[in-house]
């Protein structure tokens, strides 16, 4: 046991309550369950619904083995970015673009929780399925209210959705998409290459691209993605995917095995994180990168930071990234350029990948770049729109 970790029970129902058993809730739960230093802590997870199936597919860049390596379904080292004028070949080395299906993730995490229970039967690791109605930060603890119970705990970690106040001057776009996992009758896909962004699709007066993830020669997830303020009617995504398949694989016979759709907020709004005993995680904890929507790997980093803080007996409400403010600023500029249409999105992403070594761009996107790398990437982008964005955001700041 490390110093500072409280071991005595002091009237809590559970030491930790995790509200929401999606990506962030389970990523944290498995780490807490496996921690030796916290092996006396009782954990309660609460969600309003049981999630077992594939409601989403997570992809992310990672070098080497990661925490969820054993459930990685597919990985790519090669990719393409296409615009009307350019075809850019990418080699991600030393990174891989890894794919995890949420159904595998939910099952794997619950299996780890079950193993932890079996290893230490006196410890409580429970999952309840009921809606959380209220979470309160009290002087000495947190209090979670559900439709049936009130639970007192040392800390609550919540990934429940939080609203962005309408009166705040923030940049906001939806990244919205529909994807089809198709199985073709003939072998048409190259599973060693994925299409990161193919902009040769209807742009919807915004930024739109097709994202193609082939998992074998017959099967691929084909996803039409748009960055814009307004969502589209479902039939528009469907028509775009159908046209894309027809154009790129003429007369292909295929079955649609699964459909996924979703929307991810792209914003520079900073969710307040001021409570002592209630800590927000996941998208609600600001782990979605404003300019790209990528969240999975930031959730993993945040979960590790929380785990280490708890193991050291420190407050888990810590800012974990010394350079986070820089990345927030870059995200803000990029969001401003996109949302104000200061430069076409397809050209912007093509410039980013064409004018810089791919591994450097990935480090920048996953927020592991050096300051020097940031500067060289920013200098490679078109000056006029970014200077205008810098000036506009400076003015917005002065008016806040
Ligand atoms: C379809 C889709 C695909 C995505 N793909 C990627 C990707 O490829 N790469 C990437 O990095 N990011 C991706 N994202 C973004 C992000 O990784 C996911 O949204 C991720 O699931 C966010 O994790 P989370 O824990 O914050 O939220 P969630 O996983 O949505 O979990 C929140 C949980 O809270 C529960 N809940 C909500 N309200 C209540 C309540 N009142 N009481 C109890 N429980 C409640 C919900 O049931 C849910 O289980 C994707 C998002 C979507 C929607």
TrEMBL record:
Pfam families: Lycopene_cycl
Gene3D superfamilies: FAD/NAD(P)-binding domain (3.50.50.60)
Organism superkingdom: Bacteria
InterPro entries listed in its UniProt record: FAD/NAD-bd_sf
Protein name stated in the entry: Lycopene beta-cyclase
